[in-house]
Amino acid sequence: MKDIGFQLVSAVPEIYVETSGPVQYKVDFLMNPHRLIIDLWDVTLTGPALTVPGNETWVKSIRVSQFDPQTIRLVLDIKEPRNCVVGIDETNPARLLIKTMTELLEATWHPDGDGGRLVLKGSGRLPAEPRYDPKTGKLYIRIPQTKLGDALQAAAGADAAGSVFKLREQDSSTVEVELAIPRGHDYSVTWNQDRREITVEVKNAPLSGKVIILDPGHGGADAGAISPSGLREKELNLVVALRLKQKLEALGAEVLLTREDDRYLWLYDRVAIANRAGGAVLLSIHANNHDNRKIHGLEIWHHPDRSESAVLAKALAEAVLARTNQHFRGIMASKDFVLPREAQMPAVIFEMGFVSNQDEEKLLKTEEFQDKITDGISQGLIAYFHTPAGQ
User: Which string of DSSP letters, residue by residue, matches 57-100?
Assistant: First the structure.
């Protein structure tokens, strides 16, 4: 054994034991008086037996001796019974850590409009592991090496604050917090500086309450543009629209696709679907084509007499270009396109790029580039709905 002492990493100091190699150990607890016995195997003292003075929290003293030729015994004289955690340091297999278990002392919900804040406070660091389950619409926060404090024991497993959250002890050393996240809401999990307090902020998602219609262009017998390598526009449009749908729903939007598989739809059928749904906006997703294979870049089309559609096109262009750094061919207006003309809401045709251009086709097929485009469209919609014309 090389060293033993206290280190302050939370409200209650931890005890560390340094050895020259990986540690193997056995733990026992004795009562009257209260003692924690830890035997370290295949370890020897480099000097005589010693006693390490305790601290003002939970340990009176630590007695260290050579129990037998292969075993060192540590006897911790404890002021009062406490749940202790003994384990190997994750970053150093030759270091043993002994600490009292953190207690979750407070769990309070602070409503704020249709959202609120859940505040968790512990006696020490709270090494929480948040996990959101989209199927249940709940956030589960697993807090290892922690137990419920006396004041929260009665709340374990029971509804609290109108079923907003629940507390439970998964086992003797793990607490789980279950928090309902309402549909169309975002959440964030943050710690304070010493990580003894966790705040979960729940608020309206930025696109909550918005109905967005996505129209993957072409489909079925209508393949749309076909690249020199055989990429069919109808398939690319659907892949990107489905990826975009997932991202918009995560932002709280209700998303309707005019088609979700490879089927043909008449243009007026697409408009009818959008108008019946009463969407806030309509985005028709396309890829472009040109006889000149050097032509490339992003285009967005709208109807010239629809000012809100122009505002939408501008918001989308700025956000997408900031992420893709594409060549921009411009925001264009035409009265000939059926969807922007007949839609009863702001509507644009979004031309992602030219499949006839070899370099742009390669980009359009990659998930990385599709993510950039769909991220840009998502952020562009958020920007649009925060402008006066997008309210």
Answer: SSEEEEEEEEEETTEEEEEEEESS---EEEEEETTEEEEEEEEE
